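Interim report, section 4.2 (structural modelling).
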Amino acid sequence: MNPALTALVLARQTTVRLLRARMPWLLLLGAIAGAVLVALIGRHIARHNRGDVALGVITWLTYMQFVLPFCALWFGVQAVQGDIEDRTSVYLFSRPLSRPAMLLGKWFAAALVSALLILLGIGILYVALTWDRSRTWQLGVRPPAAMLPAFAHAGVLGALAYAALGALFGAWFKRPLIMGLVFLVGWEGMMANLPAHASARALTVVDAVRRLLWQAHAPRDDYAEVLLGPMMVHPDPNALDPSLALLRFAVLAGALAAWVYARREYDARVAE
Amino acid sequence: MAIFERGYRDLAYRPTAPFRRIWPIARHELAAIFRIRFGTVIFIVCLAPTIGSLIFLLASAGIWETEPRMRERMAGFDPSLPSFFLRPITSALGFLPFLVLTTLVSARAIAKDRAAGALEIYWTRAITPLGYFVGKVLGSFLLLATVFVVAPFVLWLTSVLIAPDWGQFEATIGFLPGMLLGLTVHAAAMAALAVGVSALASTPNMASIAWLFVVVGTGFVGQVLRRMLAEPWVALISPWSAAARVVDWFAGWTPVVSYPPAAAGVALAAALAAVLGLAARRLRVLEAVAT
Amino acid sequence: MSDVQLVFDAVSKWYGQVSALTDVTLRCGPGVTGLVGRNGAGKSTLIKLAAGLLRPSTGTVLLGDAPPTRRAARALLGYCPDVDRFYEEMSGRAFVAWMLRLDGLSARAARERAGEVLDQLGLGAAMHRRIAGYSKGMRQRVKLAQALGKRPRVLLLDEPLTGLDPVARHQVTDVVRQVGREGACVLVSSHVLHELENLADAGIALVHQGRLLAHGGVAELRAQLSERPHRLRLRTTRPRALAARLVELDSVARVAIGARDVEVETRAVAGAFADLTRLGASGERLIDELLPLDDDLEAVFGYLVS
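Predicted structure of the assembly:
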């Protein structure tokens, strides 16, 4: 089977496997529950906020800063390490398939499922915020639909990058979730507070996602504050275009994951 | 032919008291992280914030007494205040070690037994599901207490021993018992919550991710609600924030962003009741064996 | 179809500081080669090296002309692992068809072939059920089906008989034997020695503590164990009279008298058989039946590893 077809077949199978697990459906349930909550307390939210600020703060804090990184990383890890851990990988590894192509397929499947969840979640949230047309927003500013493409853009590219990282950790480490946790909470948390021009920020995904939204939304009030983080550092206007930065991160992490996946002897971990 | 009358005998022994059967489970849980080199490294890394404070304490010995303006400039680093001892534990600095330790050990405690089919073996021993659960919580608590109670105590002891006189002792002894009690409550509550979440999940990975949602997810949702509704206390839906406030209250310290301690206590108790109630259902013997 | 050989040339494998295999040289051609050894002897490591799941620390493994870590070599391979792991949510047929698709069969051909091979292994009626609901024996047969499905030139079976009932065992051994007879190179590891003995027409490889102790036919191996006396049981109605005649023979080393038989130990098995045949054919009718006691795999295995 040629590598392109291998990647395609594996992507399809991994997508089906990931969707058959409980996790995506629990997340969807969580998104719906969150939306119901937002719909119920919508009047209070509107009383204290402009629509663009409310949509920005909720989406950034819940979806972009939490659901996107944790889920895409988890799906990336599951796609690659799930097989290795339950040892069904022997069926794949003993077949005439290219391992990098297999990893590529799994990575895309993880990114696809994560991106779908994020897009669906943001869509549901938007509907929950705007369904009641009689609601009066502060200064009359309703949540603008024009903000959604930038969220979708950042969600898809972010999912690709975080899933690549998950695939890399899954291929590389025996306990990828812990490493992922250290990366998300420790590394990204630390790097995001460095000065704006610090080149180490390029080693994070969150910085590019933040810059992408900053460019697209020109945020204000609370939204600007949460987007900038506790150190309130404005993004560096001279840094690499955020979309390109996200793609670069994804490709590098994906390539490294494919390299590790192709070389590792996963069966050597299991004593006879 | 009655071959069953050949003299098979019961083993003669006096059964131990039920509570003594809990201890092997707790000890096993406590030692789990140290059985692998990676776990030992993680444990040491989790002590890093306290070790950092210790180094700062040793490096700044004598400065507080000779430079009175230091106390004004660096109030957060003043070893005569509770914030110095609590900073490595309840601030964002202490959150990562807490998260790593609980995700690696406590949140996987029961889920890994369930995934391995070990619950069936436990349930056929003379230990009840409650005893098993208590053993797991106790083991996790002892591990968390080492990092989040014993380490700050060692830090306090060092601060007293390197001080030139009894000034540091007199300044801190007032809040020390309360602070240690608060930290103990914090460690116990978090251990119980994490092990409770572990009882709900079917695999260790699922348990870890569920725990992240409970701790990190509620934190983000709390932040959203706090900002959107302009009501600071809503952030207490995060058990971590609630527990941290309880510790501050025990230590008699009021941080800049503060919530009513009673509300924090209620929020923490409600989270515990919800998780433990669900865990009790999930740990019923028949269900655990059937699934 | 030309024959494909599986060759291990001075292969060693370490897991960190633990040596799993030491300097193994083995050549498996057409037919079924049995791989025997205790738990932890290195059988699974040997099979995983052949499947390209592990790389040798030193030495070379060749599957045909290429190492099995190459895709071209793995195209010749069918592998049935020892682990009992599946995509549980799939049906038996869907799983085998999916594996055959990964082997390069079209979707339709894979489905048809999956049904065929599962039917051949006695799972025809249950192939549409989810694997999660299968018994251990059924799961074992699904594993075997995914390996046999593409009619591989080299078939690696790691403990394929584990968990099978006698009927299923018979079915499986028939299928594997047939594959070997048709010219495929089959390497089978098993603890069920007497069944492996019947199955392994191309010889037995005996692995112990990571070393290849012996390789060859059971009789051939037994003959080479010259320091171990062969034991024979002679049934007779007159054991004492027979024993008296036996002690006179130079080929007989030791005689033990039973109620209705006599056990004989000999170091010169060919000479002993000739002497005993002559004795049996004589007019005294002293020997009713002659049974070799230790030329089976179990005995050879016991002698070699003890």
